[in-house]
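Practice set, problem 2.
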Amino acid sequence: MPEHRTAAPRHTLARLPGLAFGGDYNPEQWPEEVWQEDVRLMREAGVNLVSVGIFSWALLEPEEGVHDFGWLDRVVDLLHEHGVRVDLATPTVAPPAWFYRAHPEALPVTREGVRYSFGSRGAICHNSPAYREAAARITAEVARHYAGHPALALWHVHNEYGAPVSACYCDTCAAGFRRWLADRHGALDALNEAWGTAFWGQRYTSYEQIDPPRLTPGTCNPSQQLDYKRFADAAMRENFRAERDILHRLSPGVPVTTNFMTALSQCDTVDYWAWGREVDVVTNDHYLITDGRRTHVNLAMAADLTRSVAGGAPWLLLEHSTSGVNWQPRNPAKAPGEMARNSLAHVARGSEGALFFQWRQSRRGSEKFHSAMVPQGGTETRVWREVTALGAGLEALAEVKGSRTVADAAMVWDWHSWWAQSAEGQPSVDHRPQERADSFYEALYDRHLTVDFAHPEADLSGYPLVVVPALYLTTLSAGENLRRYVENGGTLVVSYFSGIVDEHDAVHPGPYPGALRDVLGLTVEEWSPLLPGETVRVNGPDGTSARADMWSEAVVPAGAETVWSYDDGPSAGRAAVTRHRLGAGAAWYVSTRMDAAGTASVLRAARADAGLAERDDLPHDVEVVRRSGDGGDYLFVVNHSARPARVPLPDSGTELLTGERTTGALAVPPGAVRVVGPDR
């Protein structure tokens, strides 16, 4: 498994005087006379940072080897004159038409053998030598030209790696995959063992016989599929590093980033634990998925995950939307006040500001109905009024910069485990690791706990409570790490279908749950997934009960005590939820998908084990998050409800957005945000 620890970023956003505010700026879509209006409005709104040049390769290099920086020079100089700093991109996410005409092989090929065409974005074979050479050349040209420019605050490599294409299945990628496998596994016998190629007669006698996991008539080897996901991610990361190193060499001292998409609903092809070590500053893009669920919970989860990828350090929200987007089946507008709540909820959870896609709403192209800071309706709109109000609010919060969000608990998450569970042949197509993570996170959120995410092999000793929602792939090292955590006094909660396979997707020897048997103090004889619409009742202590669906198990305690039991269904009479005292701690196991009330009940008991006090004094859908720094503590209170909230305060302070002094309790109007800092 790759090294999991996330190094602290080497740079900060020190080139900005306060919290960042702005967005993607695409002046090439507009006549130059609009640029003057743009910078005037930026000053009015309080914008201090914009991302420029992300999709501009065709303009910066209109012909191979011919470069035109004149228009971008005028833009960057104009921004500098008006006090706006620049997050300057390498435009390598969008190679020009002339490049693809000369190198059609650089267009990616699907698993089905279909080559994509030019006409969108991100259509890149990341193993193409021609693409890699061209990307390095344009990166070097941009770096030489703008290194030392006083407006330059940040370098922005590429855009949203993995979206919309991460893996290509062409012959060039096949050759690269073979080399990657040889480096990873060494002798071919080791690969055959790791992949279990004795099954279905898939044994290889030469690396040249191995292809990517292209379309097959039956189930393709899941170990091969897992390694290919790793290979595709590594190829993208190799290209990022190549551009980053050019920028470090030619523009030293300026931090380099690329915009992540950590929300589990938006990108499942990138191992962000690995990527977090490569950037100087972690940045993220986040868009609400308006599917009828509580969108603010998903937002909090994505922000917590981004902060965790940053190793707890401050990070930056590089894109979100002022209102509706354009790429969902239905794209509702944000309600009044929702944009500010979204933005400040990210800041509460560690972001050093809030930027949007994009500054001015496009008139043409596939994103013309995507909201922007300057809508097509102009400045006589609610969105613009809210944008200017948010700019003033972020300016008032400038002293928060550099402080760190304080977490109460941790959730274990691993992209490799997620990838392994996505292969065919699983016990139930209804089991989705993302759903388990969402469900447990929401339960923690509703208990008013701020959550860090952690790699399974990371140091967990600082957390009184750790939740493991879907760790199907669990290395022996990870299992040992979780066991030590509990023995040393931690409280662990593990959901079903965890601990099952090793890093090669091979089932651990012995009964399930493999690498977690010892820490959980039980075995599982077999799984009994439930059919759609089928539910079971589980009974808990003191007459409590809950409904459960989708999954059940035949659990055999081996040291663990039974806390909840199946009342009916295929596992009737058996343990449903167990608790294992181990050393100074306790490990809980939840063997079915309990309803929200049942999940909350289990977490309440685990919380008591962990010594975390309940916060029954906090209203539902009012999140309270603390950032702490050299200047003191900052309490963010975000009221997502339609009712006024009253939140008790531990100390007196100053509410930074209104300037009012607070003591005893804080009144927060419906849909509003308040931030209490130290007394001044």
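Problem 2, part (b): a different protein.
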Amino acid sequence: MITKILIANRGEIACRVIHTARKMGIATVAVYSEADRDAMHVRMADEAVHIGPAPSAQSYLVIDRILDALRQTGADAVHPGYGFLSENRGFAERLEREGVTFIGPPVGAIEAMGDKITSKKIAAEAGVSTVPGYMGLIADADQAVRISGDIGYPVMIKASAGGGGKGMRIAWSEAEAREGFQSSRNEAMNSFGDDRIFIEKFVDQPRHIEIQVLGDKFGNVVYLGERECSIQRRNQKVVEEAPSSFLDEATRRAMGEQAVHLAKAVGYYSAGTVEFIVDGNRNFYFLEMNTRLQVEHPVTELITGIDLVEQMIRVANGERLALSQDDVKLDGWAIESRLYAEDPYRSFLPSIGRLTRYSPPQEGHQPDGTITRNDTGVEEGGEISMYYDPMIAKLCTWAPTRGEAIAAMEDALDDFEVDGIGHNLPFLSAVMAHPRFLTGNITTAFIAEEWPLGFHGVEPDNDQSRLLASVATFAQLADDSRKTKISGTLANHTRKLGTDYVVVAGKHDWPITAMCEADSIGIRFEESVSHIVASDWTPGAPHGRFTVNGHTLGIKIAKAESGWRLRWKGIDQILKVMAPRIFELSHFMPAKKVRDTSKQLLCPMPGVITQILVIEGEQVEAGQPLATVEAMKMENLLKAEKRSIVKSVKAQIGHSLAVDEVIMEFE
């Protein structure tokens, strides 16, 4: 029987494994790098061992250091989580030689399915539908271009040992194939220590749908329904749901049965995921098999009631599955939104820093019958490092129907408070409210199609604008009311609050009349639109629940620029509540000048310069690559915006730069 588990990982997945192990009465050991010395998973575990410097290549990816931690603590099993060493055949073999139980699949399955080229050949032999492509290894960019032309554009360039969107590019032309091959190769080497690349046909209008499988060491394998993971950016999943609104029962069964056949063909046991690409006619093609726990596993747990980590531990311990395929029932709908440390207003560039505010919504069963779950590995005051993946939490909601699950997610996102770093909460709210998402009309190109020029926030409609204007007025009156309560010798002095105001939001302004009642404020607009606003919010609180005409809303609120910054459903707006005379005079205020950076290449994110591709005095053309910056395990290629001449290069390869540091200047 397993008595002590070492988790060879960090962050939210380490915390997730500890949670189940604790429930099962099993002791846990955390490992940590220098950057994670004060991390949540370190404090949650029964024991913790330091394994090296911050870079994962010097800590979490060093097998010998993990084995040293095992020997120090006497742990008799290892759960690898996902990423890092989770699909490393050599790691599983070393554990086997050490007599330590690996909470995962057999070495043979890792070898067969962990390599995308080999896995496609095995899948084809097992009768699984596969995508057309070139399964051999590709030596250089010239060969990549020739193969891409033979297959026909668009093509997908992928790292053989990849996962999580790392080392993956879509190429629509010869130039993109050449450039994408090199970038994929670099990312693959940096993330997995393996730069092998292959190319396959990119299916237009695709959906990414995956099947969760679970097997034991006695040959029993079941599938636990599917997950739709089509909301992606740069091939990185952002929103997942279970089940898929697109599949019918016949397609679900066919995909599930093929996934089970593939698992049995390689003697698979433990939890695993078979990923498919599905076209608009519900034709499906095998992409890869992930021989590990998936990031998005919570949505499967929410609709099946099965703890996948517990099942992995029991299978590793030699137990038979306690359920058959007929026992698997899908109940309700679950959605997962990944909270990333990235700035959606700056092309989703990674963001690092300290979490000055981190307050997730209340977890568990809600009064309306829905469920909220938040898997995380951070807390307020924690540091988001440049060395690791930018995902900091997974917010999940469950409800009986898809529409109710989306509504629950909208409310949960509105109640999630994060400050101190750039984050994608506004973007996640925008996805939830988007008409295409609401109807389930989505593909993996959804984000690129709906925000082709980048995300710039949600523009409120007239009803939303007036609603926020009413909340801002409530906040202003609450703040003014507090200021009238003067203590000391002037205790009886009061200042009468006005009733006429003008609320300014961007290019809009609304004259309003506000009337204070005993427990609410009545607000009337010129157009005869009226709102009754009530709340127990007090000035200074960063979040409030406001009831407007009987509907309760969670709104993030803060003082800003002589007004109020309100954030709600992806809208991020500053509203100023002024007396009519002040509004008249405000038109005479001079506008601030914006800094001119048109002749500079600025570092768009905290990161390390890995390539400088031009020299001083060189003439560059629009679209020409200038430099690459590596941040949070992703390589970012910076290109020229217009034709120019390089005046000076300020940065050097290997330098760590902060946001907006100058990389080079142009004439």
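Answer key, part (b): Residues 132-201 form a domain with the Dna Ligase; domain 1 fold (CATH 3.30.1490.20). The chain has a mean pLDDT of 92.
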